[in-house]
């Protein structure tokens, strides 16, 4: 300890301690002069051309010369030598990796630099967040994780005051709102659309007050500045080892002396920059990608530039002052100048860097990575929740933190975006997969403890994670009986269709209380069976509907039974029962002219002479295809010798037994099977010709299908009918040499189709599935794409399951596959997309809210990020599409919604990746499987509440595990606690966004979100935090900002003058007052109010209850 103190004392002698961090450490800007804020910085991508570790350690320099550890080593050394120098750092993932390897002496020096404001953190999240493909929940989590590291290490001096989003490819409104509520005073951006930037430069509108959310009002306002040079130095003034610009040579005896010319050139640059801003302050970024590996080169030249420029200014009376600064200090200087700012209420999407370079392709690029990132978030929320609900050991936090870190990396603007090299994408997946797998330790402990009642008992079940997106699960495929365990991560009851891959057979499904529940066996679609990466023997899926409790766990027991096991169970049934079916059949055939035949005999009977007039669902048979000739043929049901219900039941049972014309005699022994079991044993039970149109339906909606095309034509609800057509298409990517805008290729970043009309996919087969649980319309195309539309019993939406790939590139052209939902909704060129999965923003075809746009790319220029939801509407109907991952979308034609599903391209777009976006697997093009859910609701009604809840449910779908139970009897299983309810049902409008262990003293992090719009009825909701959990008791709470790194009562909001007032609602829905504070009541009162769109964050003391 003495040695440590001596080290600290020795280190502190170098620079006297002056603990003035933050704004107090700033060099004071002077009135009446142009204050030039020199801001040294480095932009360190957390993966892009190299992996995270390759960037940190400086390996693979043949790809890019970059080593983050050397940057931090070098910068700290140079800062320590001169107290006037400043530096900012952004990516906590890299800083923390470096910090953990430093000696006490180096850590002490860093601590001094931070406390004196010489090293300042900006941004401060684990990585520099993408703003298009990222979801607000993951953004909040990764900011919380990075900021917590900084706060716990450097206390209040480690709290960043500004956001630093200099490289993301467009900027979202929700992100601005989140930062404002995390306590940031300002936000600086690098990239905005080139036409927007030109207009802002001309109008001195490069700095503005951005309102992040209309419903939240002032608390979501944040000062926003657009940097002049994106984030690079002024041309000619890059002093890095990676640059070729001339250094400042101040030796008067050298023939290369250039001080005068260099200073004059710099004055010209900053004078030009100053004309774009409204105060006497200019921020000059001095750095770029992975700069400062030799920080001495930079600081030596900057020292000279500042010194000689100030000398010349003083000598010539130029009223220019250069000094080292930071974004924090620049912001303070602007605030002290008290400018009047323009306002902004929309966002900065889409981003174009030139007339043909619309950065809208990355909204969809690498769709499997985007899907896995979404899954990773669900696993993270589950792990955090169960660590608390299960009262699990403290040491589990190691694996929990590993998953937090991996998910933080995935939010990086070259990770979830899909804009990295292929080997880097592979490394992201490796990292996340390992973290998810390790985090299952928490789930398995919680499931075992909550079901068995004792964490010390050996676990009965394995709780295996399966590849359900490939309909693959070795555990269920190879078990005679197995247990399905499901976790529901949302705060309300959920009905969720569960599909478990199995081999063909008869299965029984038992609910947690032991009751046998309805299930249906369906064949796995052929395109899924053919996915190259699929390694499975499953041919079918057992489908059932699970009723799940809030933050609940349920287990279902499923067993495969042999037909012979029930041979004697119903022996009292008469042996001639099925023999009599022959007589029934004879009568029915005579009076109705129905011919039913087995699919397996189809080749022998190619023609149908008798047909029936309407779609007829017979029992639970798996497939039925029906046609019509005489509309009156079955009009009079009462004349039939048996009732229709009896007919359906008998045919359902009888045809399975009478396969191959096998007629049972009265005295013949046979297996006693019920209808469901027979249906499960039959691959293709019945085939009957179809009418011109038919329906798939449930109690909420119908889809009318045109038999001749296999297309859906209408969606019918009790009170309205909507025309509906679902068409899959592809765009052909433009190919060019990228030497000029006209020759720009479509690539990982850029979407640039060759034509303005897509190529439709050609459908070749159409199959229908009918059953008690699910009805499906399956369609395959000639172009390696398939579509499956599903309607489940009891659910008010239909699901579109699609499989795309391998995309054919043998013609030498890249392709970008889309689906277009075509309706008769009169949306007049207006559509709405979500902002990071939260608020909805109005989009108008071919327009921008704040500047006049000219579109040379009318398709790509109208694409927007769809993180979770897109919809169109008219006065009567709103058509909502919910996505299972982030995608690009638009409404290019009246009444239509288009979403891009997959991209495979053969040329790079020349924005740095240096590779074509040509993903492969198993020596073939990558196959993508995904799903959309479509809602048809009435706008302006409480049905919008359903839409909001469904969007959250789609993002946080229940997580399913499967365990072998061959050695666990039903009698053993039923004695377990197979149903756990962690949360009481929350009021409508309330979402438990975060339930996370915070510290070992029984403190947890709690976020309560109101997902309602202010225009909705009863949009302010009361919540009693003391009465929401079933096995936890909240004792006290203290409210923090959104990032949980500052007490809410200590958070202050800067006031700015604006040119104009904000409109009440930028989407023009309602007239609402946005100027009230929405923080709600503070203190330890457990009864709180949560207002529309508000997220309230608390550190809560709690205790577990039995």
TrEMBL record:
GO terms for biological process: mannose metabolic process. One of its GO terms (molecular function) is metal ion binding. It is an enzyme of class 3 (hydrolase). The keyword Disulfide bond applies. Its cofactor is Zn(2+). Its EC number is 3.2.1.-. Residues 357-432 form the Glycoside hydrolase family 38 central domain. SMART domains: Alpha-mann_mid. It catalyses: Hydrolysis of terminal, non-reducing alpha-D-mannose residues in alpha-D-mannosides. SUPFAM superfamilies: Families 57/38 glycoside transferase middle domain, Galactose mutarotase-like, Glycoside hydrolase/deacetylase. One of its GO terms (cellular component) is lysosome. Keywords: Disulfide bond, Glycoprotein, Glycosidase, Hydrolase, Metal-binding, Zinc. It holds the Pfam family Glyco_hydro38C2. It comes from the Eukaryota. Binds 1 zinc ion per subunit. InterPro entries: Gal_mutarotase_sf_dom, GH38_C, Glyco_hydro/deAcase_b/a-brl, Glyco_hydro_38_C, Glyco_hydro_38_cen, Glyco_hydro_38_cen_sf, Glyco_hydro_38_N, Glyco_hydro_38_N_sf. Belongs to the glycosyl hydrolase 38 family. PANTHER family: ALPHA-MANNOSIDASE, LYSOSOMAL ALPHA-MANNOSIDASE. This is Alpha-mannosidase. It comes from Brenthis ino (lesser marbled fritillary).
């Amino acid at each position: 300890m003495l040695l440590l103190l001596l080290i600290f004392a020795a280190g502190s002698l170098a620079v006297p301690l002056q603990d003035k961090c933050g704004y107090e450490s700033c060099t004071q800007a002077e009135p009446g002069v142009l204050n030039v804020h020199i801001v040294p910085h480095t932009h360190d991508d957390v993966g892009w051309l190299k992996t995270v570790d390759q960037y940190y350690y400086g390996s693979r320099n043949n790809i890019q010369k970059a080593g983050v550890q050397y940057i931090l080593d070098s910068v700290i050394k140079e800062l320590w030598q001169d107290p006037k120098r400043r530096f900012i750092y952004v990516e906590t993932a890299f800083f923390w990796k470096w910090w953990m390897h430093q000696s006490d002496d180096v850590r002490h020096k860093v601590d001094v630099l931070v406390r004196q404001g010489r090293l300042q953190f900006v941004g401060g999240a684990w990585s520099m967040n993408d703003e298009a493909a990222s979801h607000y929940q993951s953004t909040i989590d990764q900011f919380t994780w990075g900021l917590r590291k900084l706060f716990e290490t450097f206390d209040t001096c480690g709290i960043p005051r500004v956001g630093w989003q200099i490289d993301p490819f467009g900027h979202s409104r929700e992100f601005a709102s989140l930062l404002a509520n995390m306590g940031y005073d300002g936000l600086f951006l690098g990239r905005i659309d080139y036409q927007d930037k030109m207009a802002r430069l001309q109008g001195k509108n490069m700095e503005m007050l951005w309102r992040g959310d209309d419903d939240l009002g002032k608390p979501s306002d944040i000062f926003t500045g657009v940097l002049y040079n994106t984030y690079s130095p002024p041309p000619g003034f890059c002093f890095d080892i990676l640059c070729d610009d001339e250094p400042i040579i101040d030796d008067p005896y050298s023939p290369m002396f250039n001080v005068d010319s260099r200073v004059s050139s710099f004055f010209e640059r900053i004078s030009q920059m100053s004309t774009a801003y409204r105060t006497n302050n200019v921020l000059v970024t001095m750095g770029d990608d992975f700069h400062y590996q030799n920080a001495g080169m930079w600081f030596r030249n900057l020292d000279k530039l500042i010194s000689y420029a100030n000398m010349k200014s003083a000598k010539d009376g130029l009223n220019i002052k250069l000094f080292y600064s930071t974004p924090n200090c620049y912001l303070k200087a602007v605030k002290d100048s008290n400018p009047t700012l323009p306002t902004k209420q929309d966002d900065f999407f889409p981003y174009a860097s030139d007339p043909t370079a619309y950065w809208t392709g990355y909204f969809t690029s690498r769709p499997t990575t985007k899907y896995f990132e979404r899954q990773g978030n669900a696993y993270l929320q589950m792990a955090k929740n169960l660590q608390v609900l299960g009262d699990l050991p403290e040491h589990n936090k190691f694996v929990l933190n590993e998953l937090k870190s991996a998910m933080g990396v995935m939010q990086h603007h070259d990770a979830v975006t899909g804009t990295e090299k292929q080997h880097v994408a592979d490394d992201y997946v490796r990292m996340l997969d390992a973290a998810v797998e390790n985090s299952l330790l928490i789930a398995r402990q919680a499931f075992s403890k909550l079901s068995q009642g004792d964490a010390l008992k050996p676990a009965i079940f394995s709780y295996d994670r399966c590849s359900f997106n490939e309909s693959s699960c070795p555990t269920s495929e190879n078990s005679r009986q197995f247990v399905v365990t499901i976790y529901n991560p949302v705060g309300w009851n959920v009905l969720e269709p569960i599909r478990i891959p199995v081999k063909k057979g008869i299965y029984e499904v038992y609910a947690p209380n032991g009751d046998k529940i309805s299930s249906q066996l369906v064949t796995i679609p052929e395109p899924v069976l053919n996915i190259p990466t699929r390694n499975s023997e499953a041919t079918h899926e057992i489908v059932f509907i699970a009723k799940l409790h809030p933050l609940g766990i349920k287990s279902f027991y499923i067993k495969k039974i042999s037909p012979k096991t029930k041979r004697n169970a119903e022996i009292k049934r008469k042996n001639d029962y099925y023999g009599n079916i022959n007589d029934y059949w004879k009568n029915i055939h005579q009076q109705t002219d129905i011919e039913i035949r087995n699919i397996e005999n189809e080749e022998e009977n190619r023609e149908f002479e008798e047909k029936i007039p309407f779609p007829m669902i017979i029992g639970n048979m798996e497939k039925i295809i029906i046609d019509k000739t005489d509309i009156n043929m079955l009009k009079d049901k009462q004349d039939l010798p048996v009732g229709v219900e009896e007919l359906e039941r008998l045919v359902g049972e009888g045809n399975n037994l009478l396969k191959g014309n096998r007629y049972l005699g009265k005295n013949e022994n046979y297996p006693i099977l019920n209808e469901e079991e027979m249906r499960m044993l039959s691959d293709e039970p019945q085939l009957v010709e179809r009418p011109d149109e038919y329906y798939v339906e449930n109690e909420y909606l119908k889809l009318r299908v045109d038999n001749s095309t296999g297309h859906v034509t209408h969606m019918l609800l009790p009170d309205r009918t909507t025309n509906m057509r679902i068409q899959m298409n592809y765009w052909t990517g433009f190919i060019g040499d990228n030497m000029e805008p006209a020759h720009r290729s479509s690539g990982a970043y850029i979407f640039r189709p060759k034509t303005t009309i897509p190529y439709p996919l050609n459908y070749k087969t159409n199959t229908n599935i009918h059953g008690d649980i699910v009805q499906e319309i399956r369609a395959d195309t000639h172009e390696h794409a398939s579509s499956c539309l599903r309607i489940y019993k009891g659910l008010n939406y239909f699901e579109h399951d699609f499989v795309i790939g391998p995309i054919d590139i043998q013609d030498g052209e890249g392709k970008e596959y889309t689906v277009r939902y075509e309706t008769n909704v009169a949306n007049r060129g207006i559509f709405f997309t979500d902002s990071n999965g939260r608020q909805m923003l109005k989009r108008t075809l071919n327009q921008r809210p704040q500047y006049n746009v000219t579109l040379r790319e009318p398709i790509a220029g109208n694409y927007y990020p769809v993180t979770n939801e897109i919809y169109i509407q008219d006065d009567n109907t709103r058509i909502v599409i919910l996505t299972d991952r982030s995608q690009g979308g638009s409404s290019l034609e009246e009444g239509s919604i288009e979403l891009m599903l997959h991209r495979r391209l053969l040329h790079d777009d020349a924005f740095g990746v240096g590779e074509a976006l040509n993903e492969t697997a198993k020596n073939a093009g990558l196959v993508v499987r995904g799903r959309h859910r479509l809602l048809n609701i009435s706008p302006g009604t409480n049905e919008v509440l359903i839409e909001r809840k469904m969007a959250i449910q789609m993002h946080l779908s229940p997580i399913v595990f499967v365990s072998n139970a061959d050695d666990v009897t039903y009698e053993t299983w039923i004695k377990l606690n197979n149903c756990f309810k962690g949360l009481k049902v929350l009021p409508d409008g309330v979402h438990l966004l975060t339930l996370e262990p915070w510290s070992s003293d029984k403190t947890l992090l709690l976020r309560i979100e109101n997902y309602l719009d202010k225009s909705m009825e009863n949009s302010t909701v009361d919540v009693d935090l003391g009465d929401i959990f079933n096995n936890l008791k909240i004792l006290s709470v203290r409210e923090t900002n959104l990032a949980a790194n500052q007490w809410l009562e200590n958070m202050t909001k800067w006031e700015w003058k604006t040119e104009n007032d904000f409109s009440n609602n930028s989407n023009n829905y309602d007239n609402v007052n946005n100027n009230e504070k929405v923080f709600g009541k503070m203190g330890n009162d457990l009864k709180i109010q949560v207002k529309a769109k508000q997220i309230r964050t608390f550190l809560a003391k709690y205790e577990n209850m039995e």
